Amino acid sequence: MWTHIPAGGPLFQTHTTSGLDGVFELEVPIALPDGTPCNLQVTQPPRSVLYSGPVTLRDDFIVLVPSPVFLHGHVLGISPDRVSAVRIDEDHAGDPRFLGSSPVDGSGAFRCAVSAPSLPPSLQCTVLLEGATNYRVAVGTPDLTSPDGAEIPVPLSDIMLLVTTADGSPLEGARVAGGDSEQRCFFRVETGADGYAQAEVLDGKVILCASADGYGPVVESFDARPDARWTIALPSLEEEDSVSGQVIFSDGRPAEGAFVSATPVTGLPNIATDAMRSAITDETGHFEIKVGGRARFVLTAYLRSYGLSAPQAATSGVSDLTIRIPDYGSLDISMGPCPPSDASRAGVVEFVFANVDTLYEDSGHTTSLPIHIEEMDPGVYNVYVWEQNEDRYASGTVEVIPGETGDYSLPCQTAWFVEGRVVNGSGQPVEGCVVRSVVREWPTEAVNRWGSCQTDGQGRFKLLVPSRETVPLSVSRQGSVLLRSEGNPDTQVTLRIPGEDG
Fold this sequence. Notes:
40 strands
C-alpha cells in the first residue's frame, strides 16, 4: 500500500496486511488532522493495483475497491524460469503509467488484476528477464482480457560479446549496455576474465556502448542474428585524448566548482550511463575530461543554485569549449515572527509562487521550515505559504538574484477558512460537487490548490482563504455551475442547490 499525503504531497510506503474482513491499519510519519485529502494506492500481492484514487483521512474510512479486470496471457519463446515478472503499463501521453505486474508459472502464464474504469485499446507489456534484460511490446487490451489471454512471444537471440584492448588482449570488467533501434529491448552485461559476455537481443539493428576504466568508450551498431559473435576494441586513453574548456556565467565570469559531465552520444536512452566521464572546474572555470575513442560526446555543466547548462556536442581533442551556466538563483523562506523552535514542529507546508512579470506559476510542498527552492529564474515573485500543522498562513514579495540564495521571512497570521455544506432542495447533503472560491489576490495555482475542493459524503467542504473578508463561491458538478454564492470565515455556510430534491 502506498499513500500520498496530502494530495500531490510526499510519498510514503506502508506495508500492511489485512484479514478476511479487509481491515487495515495505516501509519504515516507525520501528524495529520482528520479531513486531510490523500491519494491512496492499494495493491494486492504480488503487485496488482486494486485501487488508486483520492480518499479523506479519518480515524476510520472505507476504501471501495472496484471489481478488478484480469489481464492474462502466456510468454512464449523463452524458458519460464528466465522470466522474473511481466509488467503492464498504460502509455499515458508517452509516459508509462504502472497498472500491475505478475510472475509467470511453469508454463509461462501470467495473470494480473488491475483496477481501472476504462483501458486504452493497447497496453505496454514488459517481460523482465533474470539479469538485466527487458523486452517491451504493445499488446492489444482485448487480447489480454479474452478467455485465452494474449500470446507474447519473446524473439530474443543469444549473442557473444568480446571486449578487447587495442592490441587484441581480452578486457575483464568492461561494461556493455545496448538495445534495439526501436527501443523495445535493453540489456546491460559485464565481461568476465576472458573478455566475453553473453547478451540477449532482438533480431535487427542493435546499438551498443562499451566502456571500461582507463579506456575510451566505443559506440557501435550491429545487425543482430542468432549466435552472432561481436568484438569491440576499446582504445587506451592517451594524454591528448581529452575534451577541455571553460565554464562561465552569462556575464563572462569563470564558474568555479561546476560539475561537468561528458556522455557518449548513442541515440538510445540510458545505455551510456556507465561511459559518462566528469570533472570539476578550477578557480578559473577550466576543466579537462579524459574521453578518448571516436565517440561523440554531449557535455553539460551544473552549479548548485544556478542550474544545468544547455547540452553541447564535442569530440576528443576539442580544447576550446565554452559552456555557459544559466542565471538561476534560489530562495530560503521562513514564516515570521515564529521562533526557530517552531521549525521542528512544522507539519506539511505547501507553497505557491508566481513571477510578477512573466506570470509563471508553480507550487510545491515540504515538511520543514525554512522552505528551500532551487533553480529559479531571476525576477520578483509573490509567494504564498500554508503551514498545515498549526494552520498558519503567510504571503509576501521576494526577489530571486542569479547565483544568490535570498533569505526571506514572511509575516505570519492564523489561517482562515470558509467551510460549510452543500445540500439539495430538501436539505440533504450533496456529495461530489466542486466548491471553488474567487480570491483575486491569489494566482490560479493557489486557487486550484487551496481554494477548490470536492464535497464529501456529508456535503461538507473547507477552503483556505487569505483573510477574514467575504469571498465569492461557486458550486459546480461535471463542469456545469449549479450555484453562485459567497462565504465568510466567521460563519458556517450552507449552499442550497435549487431544483435538486435528491
